[in-house]
Write a structure and sequence with these properties.
813 residues; alpha+beta; seven-stranded mixed beta sheet
């Protein structure tokens, strides 16, 4: 937001300097990004009138001008500007004047004007362009001044150049300060200086003409209020007054034409974007609605956009005329032949405008304001202001003004927000009383009621940012003054939080992975929708409303896609071996999740550990042949990571993994992840030279662990026994071990498979497809020495358990 200080002081003029004003605004929450003079320093430049212009006798492109500078005889000045002519008033630098350094000059010294002879003709001064005075970049000719300017007056006084231009860096919650009056309202609250609210007198109608307007029922969430007025018989070629051009320029807005300038002026004045239509180009009347998919519109910026169903429009009975709250269309724009206009001011719901302009790769002042919220209560008042300016500047003897047609179809009804005084004091860190809080609300002009320890505030119509108690606390501290906060670091009660010994910190998990040779990577939570569809089997991901790029349009529900992206980046840089992990959140729709301080209703956000291993299993070395990483290498690292958690691996199916080379990870009877080789289909689809091995694991499954229980060293020796059993082709390793460990009355301390025999030809005692599995048993009784008889009973119990639970039978010797 950029504006001249002089304009701000017409609404609120505290008796403080420019520097103090900037400081007070910044400390009041309206950060002043820059303060610069409206014009660079120069002197000796006056308002001059060109009396006569004659051709230069010795140069075709030069002219000899007779110039009245208000002091004695006219001066003879040689000028080459194409727009110099008799009767105009222009800036004249007299002999001895000092102008800003020429553009591109290596010196900071001012440019001094002296008397001289140009092609044999004496020249006693210089007629100036706006660029030569560093007032603008316009160098097409002389700066033409207001015909009413007083000849001989100092140009700095005539153009009010001893002004200061403020640039505010406003946060998105300060939409009410996107107009000079809004800033003045804040300044009045901050400084206590009186706010001068202009009295906008209604313009009496002189005709009953009304343009039919209809807000479609389906568009009530688009437009809450639409006001308009017909004005006939205007002069579109009328000159914009110099004072308006000056203020617009200092707001960073170039003057276009009187009608457009008036609309822009009121926008900068009150923060209200409006639009002026050429009434004669509107067919039938106006309809406010959502666009039909495929409709097109040529905009004022010359581009043609294709619309979809969630973009609001203003249309007539034939076609779309403008983008609601964003930009008008070219067909109904006012031009030099316009005679009749329709002035429109509306309230567009912020949610209906937000992000639409960026969708078409441009931004506008109107969209910037409407998506932050514009006061819905002042549409009629601002139309009256525009009408008065149109009649004053563009009015003719035939000008007729119609009545204001105001359609109200649903306005915001903000609920009261309660401020608890004791909580405000705790959050701010200083003692604020109830009287302090009430005084702040009064200075801001809010409606409020209070009781012991609380103040209820009804947000005004122009404040869309006051919805929570914290918003009111912010208002209190910024008006009480940040400089009232005590110096030094904040102090508060610190209560020691003893972490649970059964919950390991995530930092230890990262170190554990690093100790196993994995490197950590960090990726965006936004991914390509293709990742979710292919690698997570997720047809309904959480979508990003306003994605950074099209390939990051959804929130990830799996880490595998992010890890594959990391692999592709490394392969593009010719890295032959990639072993990376990521610890990050994923996002899944889950209706069972309730809203909480750290949760969003309907959205599960578990923390996962994911890993990817590609290339050789170990770096090249002379002592061992190179071997590509496989399922068992990653499974081995996971077993070391999950040591002590009784993790099991069971064959499973996963949308991203090879159906025969993948397993689910089970801990405490619950599936907490998966590990396996990437499916060949995705290896080919993602253009990988070989399939990496990947895994995902719930981080909380690793964090929670039982406390160690210390027992004395055993006094009895371990007895080893080997048994060989014949099993069917579907019997799994984990079922054999579980059957063996569950037998023997606690005497079996360990069971492991150390040999598997699959005969290629028929063998006596075994049918086709059966396997012989050798299991080594470690037996021990901590209270007594095991005898041969007891050992045989335990072995027999193990064999019985294997037969019962897996169908295994003892292999004949």
């Amino acid at each position: 937001m950029q504006f001249p200080e002089s304009w701000l002081r017409t609404f609120c003029d505290p008796p403080i300097s420019t520097e103090a004003l900037a400081e007070r605004l910044t400390m009041g929450g309206l950060e002043v990004e820059s303060v610069r003079p409206a014009a660079p320093p120069f002197h000796g430049v006056v308002v001059a009138e060109v009396l006569a212009v004659e051709p230069h006798p010795n140069a075709d492109r030069l002219k000899v001008c007779s110039v009245d500078v208000g002091a004695g005889e006219p001066l003879s000045i040689v000028c080459g500007a194409p727009n110099v002519r008799a009767g105009i008033k222009v800036p004249c630098a007299r002999v001895g004047a000092e102008l800003p350094p020429a553009e591109g000059s290596a010196s900071d010294e001012p440019f001094r004007i002296g008397a001289g002879t140009i092609r044999g003709v004496e020249s006693r001064g210089m007629l100036c362009s706006a660029r030569e005075l560093h007032l603008s970049d316009d160098h097409g000719g002389l700066l033409i001044l207001d015909p009413q300017a007083s000849v001989g007056a100092d140009l700095r006084d005539a153009l009010r150049l001893d002004d200061t231009v403020f640039t505010l860096k406003l946060t998105p919650n300060l939409g009410h300060a996107l107009g000079v009056y809004g800033v003045a309202r804040e300044l009045a609250a901050i400084t206590g200086a009186p706010l001068k609210t202009p009295d906008i007198a209604p313009v009496a109608p002189t005709t009953g003409d009304i343009l039919p307007v209809r807000i479609e029922p389906a568009a009530r969430n688009l437009c809450g209020r639409f006001s308009g007025r017909v004005v006939r018989g205007v002069d579109p070629k009328a000159a914009t007054p110099a004072w308006m051009v000056e203020r617009l320029a200092r707001c960073g807005q170039r003057s276009v034409a009187a009608l457009v300038d008036i609309s822009n002026y009121v926008m900068f004045e009150y923060g209200r974007p409006t639009h002026i239509f050429d009434l004669d180009t509107i067919e039938g009347g106006l309809v406010v609605r959502w666009a039909e998919p495929g409709e097109t519109l040529e905009l004022l910026n010359g581009s043609t956009v294709t619309l979809d169903a969630d973009v609001g429009v203003i249309a007539d009975h034939a076609r779309v005329e403008s983008l609601a709250g964003i930009m008008g269309g070219e067909r109904t724009a006012v031009v030099d032949t316009t005679r009749n206009v329709y002035i429109e001011a509306a309230f567009w719901w912020p949610e209906a405008v937000a992000g639409r302009a960026r969708r078409y790769r441009f931004s506008t002042d109107a969209a910037h304001r409407f998506e932050r919220g514009v006061d819905p209560q002042t549409t009629v008042e601002h139309i009256e202001r525009i009408t008065a300016l149109v009649v004053e500047i563009c009015g003719t003897a035939e000008t007729e003004v119609g009545p204001i047609d105001d359609h109200v179809d649903g306005l915001p009804n903000p609920a009261a927000v309660r401020l608890r005084v004791d909580r405000a004091a705790r959050v701010i860190g200083i003692d604020v009383s109830q009287a302090d809080c009430e005084r702040v609300m009064t200075r801001l002009g809010f409606q409020w009621t209070s009781g012991p320890g609380w103040v209820d505030v009804i947000p005004p119509s122009y404040r869309f940012d006051l919805r929570l108690e914290e918003d009111l606390i912010e208002e209190v501290i910024r008006l009480v003054g940040y400089d009232s906060l005590p110096p030094g670091p904040p102090r508060g009660r610190i209560a020691a939080q003893v972490p649970s010994e059964t919950l390991r910190p995530l930092a230890r998990l990262r170190h554990a992975m690093a100790d196993l040779g994995w490197q950590e990577t960090i990726s965006y939570s936004f991914v390509d929708e293709r990742h979710e569809r292919d690698l997570a089997g997720n047809a309904d991901p959480v979508r990003v409303v306003n994605p950074i790029v099209s390939t990051q349009g959804v929130m990830r529900s799996s880490l595998i896609g992010s890890l594959i992206d990391v692999l592709r980046v490394n392969l593009a840089r010719r890295q032959p071996r990639v072993k990376v992990f990521e610890l990050g959140k994923v996002y899944r729709k889950d209706a069972s999740v309730a809203a909480a301080d750290s949760a969003v209703a309907g959205l599960a956000q578990p923390l996962l550990l994911g890993g990817l291993w590609f290339g050789p299993a170990r770096p090249p070395q002379w002592g061992a042949a190179e071997k590509a990483v496989d399922f068992y290498d990653v499974k081995g690292d996971l077993e070391r990571l999950l040591e002590g958690l009784d993790a099991r691996f069971e064959a499973t199916s996963h949308p991203a993994l090879h159906p025969g080379r993948s397993a689910a990870i089970w801990i405490a009877g619950r599936s907490v992840g998966a590990v396996g080789e990437l499916h060949p289909q995705w290896r080919q689809s993602y253009e990988l030279p070989a399939s990496p091995v990947v895994f995902e694991l719930e981080a909380d499954a690793w964090r929670v662990h039982a406390l160690p229980i210390y027992t004395p060293l055993p006094r009895q020796q371990v007895v080893m026994r080997d048994v060989a059993v014949v099993v069917g082709p579907t019997v799994r390793h984990d079922s054999l071990i579980a059957a063996a460990m569950s037998s023997g009355g606690g005497t079996v301390r360990e069971a492991m498979v150390f040999d598997i025999y699959e005969p290629k030809t028929p063998v006596a005692g075994m049918t086709a497809g059966e396997r012989s599995v050798a299991i080594r048993l470690a037996l021990r009784d901590d209270t007594a020495t095991l005898t041969d008889e007891r050992i045989e009973r335990v072995v027999a119990d193990v064999l019985a358990s294997l037969a019962e639970r897996t169908g295994a039978r003892r292999r004949a010797q």
